[in-house]
Amino acid sequence: MKKAIYPGTFDPPTLGHLNIIERSAALFDELIIGVGISSKKENTIFTLEERLSFLKKITKSLPNVSCFSFPGLLVDFAQEKECDIIVRGIRNILDFEYETTQSQMNKALSGIETLYLFVDERFRMISSTLVKEIGKEGKKLETFVPSEICDKVLSKLHLVT
Ligand code: COA
Predict the structure, then answer these.
(1) Can you tell me which atom of ligand 1 is nearest the CA of 75?
(2) Binding site membership of 86 for ligand 1 (Cβ less than 6 Å)
């Protein structure tokens, strides 16, 4: 049985993330979504509970997907959950540069390989940072954020402005 982990900060999850989740869920028997607690992005707008609840909502129809948070290193959590592969999405050359060192370090630490999926063309311009920026200004987010969580994302963004 092939089990993969898709890690991220997901502040908030976007349609780009969901696209990678759906495609990975079709490739593996089981997909774990791991929300990193000690990622470099410590000042998230959405709490860990909110991000996990968003992820659970948008993956409700995918029976082989489950969502967790993890402290510490990704590779330790991946090993604890017996995942063979780490999945990441690549949007552009900057992602590629960043992901190269991450995957090499993760492999050196654990032997776990990283599988990269190119983000679909229509989602390449999305980033959680841009979603927060435009949401705070009251723009509609339906084109960027899954419909199930759109209202909650917008109302929180309005609260923090
Ligand atoms: N479509 C559109 N946008 C996407 C995307 C996709 N498919 N996939 C990622 N993105 C965007 C996100 O919106 C986000 O945008 P932002 O930078 O504006 O916030 C950005 O790409 C990356 O965010 P995300 O996918 O949430 O992941 P991350 O890079 O924040 O995740 C961890 C980082 C959690 C994987 C990493 O910090 C980690 O492994 N932490 C644990 C500690 C550890 O092991 N460190 C050592 C590693 S060697």
Answers:
(1) 44
(2) no
For the entire predicted model, the pTM comes to 0.94
Crossing angle for the helix pair 147-159 and 128-136, to the nearest 10 degrees = 60
For the record, the structure tokens of 157 come out as 């963004």
- Which regions of the chain does DSSP assign to beta strands (E)? 3-8, 30-36, 65-70, 85-90, 113-118
The whole-angstrom separation of Cα 75 and Cα 94 is 22
For residues 104-121, one letter each, b for 16 or more C-beta atoms within 10 angstroms of the residue's C-beta and e for the rest, the string is eebeeebebebebeebee
Answer for the pair 28, 63: CB distance below 8 angstroms, yes or no: no
Nearest alpha carbon to residue 99 among 65, 74, 133, 126: 74
CA 81 from centre of chain? 17
Q: How many angstroms is it from 35 CA to the middle of ligand 1?
A: 9
Q: What is the pLDDT of residues 103-124, one digit of tens each?
A: 999 999 999 999 999 999 999 9
